[in-house]
Structures are given as structure tokens and as C-alpha cells.
Model the fold of this input.
Amino acid sequence: MKDIFQYRQLFYFLVWRDIKVRYKQTLLGIAWAVIQPVVAMVIFTIFFGRLASVAGQTNIPYPVFVYTGLLPWMYFSGAVSNGANSLVTNVQLVTKVYFPRQIIPSISLISGLVDFGLSFILLLLLMVYYAVSIGSGMLLVPVLLLGVSMLALGLNLFLAALNAQFRDVRHAMPFIMQIWLFASPIIYPPRFVPEKFRFLLNLNPMTGYLEGFRSAVLHQPWDFEALAMSLSISAVLLIIGSLYFNRVEATLADVI
Amino acid sequence: MHKLPAIEVQNLSKQYRIGALEKKNAHLGEQLRGLIPRLFSRDKKNTIWSLKNVNFTVEPGEAWGIIGRNGAGKSTLLKVLSKITRATSGTVVTRGRVAALLEVGTGFHPELTGRENVYLNGSILGMTKPEIKRKFDDIVDFAGVGPFIDTPVKRYSSGMQLRLAFAVAAYLEPEILVIDEVLAVGDLEFQKKCLHSVEEMKGGRTVLFVSHNLGAVKGLCQKALWLEQGEVKQSGEVNSVVQAYLSSVAEISKGDSIEEKRQGGTGLIRFTSIELRDQEGDERASFMVGEQMRIRADFSSQARVIDPAFCIGIIRGDGTVVSYLHSMAVGYPLSKVSGKGFVEVTIPEIMMMPGEYHIQLWCGAKRDRVVYDLVEPVARFTIISGPIMRSQLALDSRWGVIYIPASWNHQSEADGQSN
Done:
């Protein structure tokens, strides 16, 4: 921990590099941060727009509904996809200089916030357009983000270390995230899932955060049980991830 | 008061699993098949010791050269010392901030500008932001990339990138500096700047320096550590360690067989062996500029041969002929030979630029153009810079073929007198 504090400047510079480089030599630049969730929103609205009303959730326009789900999801999936590959893409650093290696899989958690922030502004515009009232629950968004970050960090530590040894992770990630997207209440509300399978949905640690995010932004009733579940699973995963990472770290430069 | 050592290394060992080295990017499936047996039996066959029981102590302010052949464990030692990887057993104690320069330009990103990369690379090497800010102008100056500092480095030539990267490293101020073979890059002018700045960086600092340039090691370091197959073969005062290392290299490189390198000839006289020796008569494959070198070629002739001529060619690694030492060129009388014998030439002072060389052996008739034997290349040897040159530069074959010890004097208006 003391080490990490000592190297905070390096952490800051690496985050800064990540942000700076991400949209270099693109025509649209930082606009990509917004284009991705918006296009996803449009597509999901066209194909799944009926799902919400089927489940009896009619008080929120579907585009707003799906966009509020996509925001935390895209932050999460971006952070984990980049994080899982992070050690491998920074192999040059890992094998040539010393610093606490935990820094590397943590970078995407912070640099992803920029994209999140931009698409969040669009959410506010969207809510104004659809005349959805903006409530004080907004203040809880940072707390929920912290939960998502904790989950992503646990996964990143585990996956990045695993990927350093077995490149299979890199190939599996896009595919896993795709499935995870549909296994999470993003394009559909939890009520869409039959009561007897609801517990399965709650085992998905993203469920509590996604629902919490909607509750906070859209004035929905809170499901504290699901949120507590997500937080506990995230904490457990963070511990497992850290332990595994520490075990691999000692000889990381040799196996990567 | 006696200061504590800057670096203490005790019983340091580092083991690599060869299997892991061979298929380090193996797929999960392949690994799973081998996983069960591997989990239960820590098979000891497929491992190698990259470092084995290494012990040494470096006092503060000392500069140590680490020498040895490729794969001797030099780089592994540096990686363990700079905490990049962990040792299998043993302890390392370092006192002071360690900066490792295992590569120039670590973390350079092509999309970022020169300025941005200086800050990034500086912080990777352990500098603080105010520190980089303070030295920024000097760094840009040293690298000579001034007008391009706000251009992405992907637009730089590779030479410019390298210069900028080294410049950042040159302004590091750690207590312990670990350098791995970074000087062997760049153009000549820049190389001498680097070597010079390493010398400046040294100033009172503890330095560990890995290099194949034994001349540079001798110039920069007072002590040396010679590693062979992961073990310390010898350590101590730099001259004696380098000397011992050189004579061991000679034994190993004797492998070049004359039979295999034979280019032709009637076979009336055949060379049988060749040896390069120094002043003391020790066999060597490396010589310093200014040292004595004796080349002895043994031969056997099938019959009595009247009026033979011998020629020993000194050829540079790229094929350039340095000189043919011909028996007739010095009017050496050789009226007849028979049976077994040898010819020996002594070069009192080798004056060739540091680099790789080899010998060509020729033997033929004095009058007509009959060639008895021709062998090339044999007796590969290395010339390294020697104290006679008093050179502050890392000279090599790009500086020419021969080294001419010239004396200098100068005059200018400022002092008005020569010295």
C-alpha cells in the first residue's frame, strides 16, 4: 500500500496516457465515447423496445430505460476488457521497470470515467427531452460507481494475471462480455425474469448496480437486497483477485 | 563512520522452468493437460538455474561491471536487483533509490508528443514531476530535438527517438544506477555522448554496469563480477577479473577447426593448428589495442619443400583486409621446410580499431603460383579498446580499420599558447 502511494505519480501519468491515446488519430475523437452507447441504445430500442412494456414497465420511455442500463454497463465492460489485457499490452513496462504491478489493471477504472462522464451528460439531455424528472437520487451515482469499480478491479486483477500466462483470456473476453450483457437487466427489467429464476439474476453482481443506477437516476424503488448481494460478491471477487494477482506477481516478468 | 553497503547479495538463486520458457504462450488446453502431473510433482528435471548462489557486496559509490557470455545470467541479476522479478532463494538488500536502465525509452508511446513522452518516461524511471520540469530544457538540449518537441514521436526518426529516450535517462539521479547494455545503440556521435554522460552520472553514485564492451567496463568501473552459467566465477578488482575472463574466452573459441575452414591448396604443406597468444604466452581470443599479439601456425609438410612462403592475413569481421603479413614482405628467409613445424609472427603492438577479426592462413611457393594450403576464417578474435588509447569514446569498427596513435596540440586566441 505504501508502495502504491509512492508510485501515485506514475499511476497518474499512465491514466493520463491511456486517456490521451485512446482517441488519437480518429476523425471523431472523443465523440466515440458517446456514439457507442447511443448507437447501442437506438438498436436496442428498435429490436427490444417492446420488452419493457411487456413486463409492465410503462412509466419510463424505453430509450431512457435502456440508456440508463447501458451507461454503467459500458463503463464496466470497457474497464474489464481493457483491464484484462492490460498486463499484456504493457509487457514492455512489466519486464523493464519495477513499480507495483497492481497499477496496471487499475488504470482502465479511472480512464473509463471520462467516457462515462460524457455519456452521462447525454443522459441528462435525454431525460430533459423525454421530460423525465431528475431527482436527488443522482447523488448516489458516485457510490454505485464505486461498487462497479470494486467489481471491475477484482476481475481485472484476476483476469490480467491469468491472461499474462494464458492468452486464451484475450480471445474469450469479447464473447463473455456479450453474453454477460444479455444476462444482465439492461435491455429488460428484472421483472421480465420469472420469479423462480430471479435469484439467478441476483447472482450476477452487475444486477444490483444496474438496478441501483436506475433507482437513483429514474426515481424507481430501491432493491437493497440485490445491491447488498452485488456488493458482497464484488468484495469476495476483489479478495480472490488480489490474492491470485499477488501470487502471480512475483514471477510475472518471467512468464508474461 | 563506516557506511553500510549499498547492495548486499547473499546466496541469490533464480530458477526458471524450461518448459515454461519454451511454451510460455501456450494455450490453456495444452497447459491443462500438463497441469495435473505438474501440480503434484514439482518436476526438477525441466528447470535451469539462471543464477546460482551468487554473493557479492557493493559499497556505496563503487562502480561494478558485470561481465560474462550471453546467457550467463547478467540480465537476470539486474532484473532481480531492480525488483522486476523475484529470486527463487537468497536475499538482496539495496540501500537507496534504485533506477534500472534496462532499455531506453521504456513506455514511450508513439502517439504522444516528445514533451509528453519525456514526462511519462521520466515518471516511469522514478522522477518526480517537479524534477522533470526542472531538467526538461536540459533533456531536450541533450537530445537535440528542440524544434520537434511537440510533435508525436512516431514522426521522429528512430535515431531521434533513441536520443530523446536516453536523454531522459541521462538526467536521472538515483543513489543506485543499474545499466544494461544501453550504450550499444545509436550513432557514433551520440554513443560517445552517452558514455560520457554515464561517466558523469557516476559521480559518487553506486553503479552496476552490464556490457560486452570490456573497454568501457574497464574505463567506468573499479570492480567487476564475472558470471558464468549463473555462478560467480570471479569478482574483485576490474583489471584482474577482465583479464581472467579474456583468457577463458580463448579456450572456448578454439573450436574453429582448420579442416572445416580449408579453402583449397595442393596439400604439400598443411596447416594443423593456430594459436593467438599474449606477451605472457597465454592463449587469448581478445586483445586490447596496444597489446602484444603472437600468432603461431603449426603445419606439417608431406615432403621437403624448397622455397615456401607463408602469409598470415588479418581480416576484419566484414571481410576487409587489415594486412597480409607475408614472409617475403619482410624478406624473411625460408629456404626449405620438412615434416612438422610452425611459423610464428609477433605483432609488438596491435593498432587496430576495436571489433571482430579473424585470421587467414596461406602457404604457397615462392616463385610460381602454386598454393599449398589456404584456410579461412580461423582464430576469430576480438580487439577491445585499451589503456594506450586513453579514449573517452566507445570506438569500434565504424571509426576505421587501424588505430593511429596521434599526438595533438592546439592553439586559440583565448590562451595564445599551445600545450
User: Anything to note?
Assistant: Chain A is about 75% helix and 0% strand.
